[in-house]
Fold this sequence. Notes:
The protein is α+β, with helices and mostly antiparallel strands.
Amino acid sequence: MNISKPTPPVPPQGDPAAAADSTATVSLYQAHRKIYARSVTGTFAAWRWGLVWATQLLFYGLPWLMWNDRQALLFDLTARRFYVFGLVLYPQDLIFLSALLMISAYVLFLFTAVAGRLWCGYACPQTVYTEIFMWFERMLEGDRSQRMKLDAGPWDANKIWRKGSKQAVWLLFGLFTGFTFVGYFTPIRSLAAEALTLGFGPWEWFWILFYGLATYGNAGFMREQVCKYICPYARFQSAMFDKDTLIISYDPERGEPRGARSRKADPAALGLGTCVDCNLCVQVCPTGIDIRQGLQYECIGCAACIDVCDGVMDRMSYPRGLIRYATQNSLAQHLDRGQMIKRVLRPRVIVYTAILVLICTAFAVAVTLRDPFRVNVVRDRGSLARIVENGQIENVYRLQVMNNQEQPQTYRVGVTGMPSIALTAPVEFTLAPAEARWITLGVRVPYEIGQSAGGGAHPIRFEIDRLASAGQHGSVKAREKSTFVVPR
């Protein structure tokens, strides 16, 4: 039997109203649905808040910590000096920053391979500030049901006061965060003095407002959208996961089929699993996903669903762990905890750990054996090789000497590499703590020596001695290569 599908009527030509009625508009973008995350308590929530306190005490407290009568951690871009506790770094020490970035990357790879998005769930600034802003929100507007009721209600005095207070607290906290961020680049005590009169410089105003408003917007409004759509880590995390990675997992064999029941009911007699379908795991999720649907890239690994599900299991007198940290292999093969942990320590994890230990060791050795001062030598481009009095050939050089110590240091400069080569005058100078200075000096060779050596560039070497002083053991010598040009 042939069944013909009805054909939609074709609007008559020249009838724009009929044509408009037959056109359907399809949106390619999903409307944003506001997430009202419920507060949760438990083991992992305590860990998360512990790291919130630890990271924020570190962030807000470090700029105020003093070291050798100056800020312990200061990136002074104007003076081109970076102070990291006892270290004084210059732009030439970029290798140390590169090593720190490599260490951070391998730590992230290692943690991700072992237990998924630990960084996202517990220490990422987006997660940390979202937790803080949600705490302000709960204090001023109430928990999930109260916030939903408040949003659905009319704009009366109570709603205006609560919403306005929340926005004011969020904005002030964001600006204080921006102020602290700028305090890592401008001495924070002088910045605080400027804050009393709002006498910030233009760049200070820009970065305080930019960083403050970014914190306000990301943690107050965008929240899960940053994790789901902006952060690239959510997209490439699957490249670091495998079936032996510990991830937050729902056990379908134990939980299905879902269904509500009384506490006294026997789930086996009802043909039900241990999931009571309360949806609390969805209500506490900051990104609004249902973990029972399996691993999803939106999951940031905060483990809020584990805490709330364990609470439900306790009230129902069921064993905990319906939602838990587990591997895909452990769920599929019914591995016990010991077998699962053993498989977590697999070759990939061992390789990451070995590389991380090697890089950290090399970094520590490099910092320990770092020269107490640095020297750069450049030829003075404003002065060519020339013949001066007494028939000598002279070249002019500029030496940059950087004192990496926080004590005054005295230096003496010498030169070797050609017969009878010498400085035009003895060079000895003292640098203040963490000072860098350019020194201009002349180097001369007798004319007959230069002629016998031949015209052109000849290798020479500058020797800079740091003279021993009180509290130091012996002298330290640095050597820098250059060339001496003999006119043809």
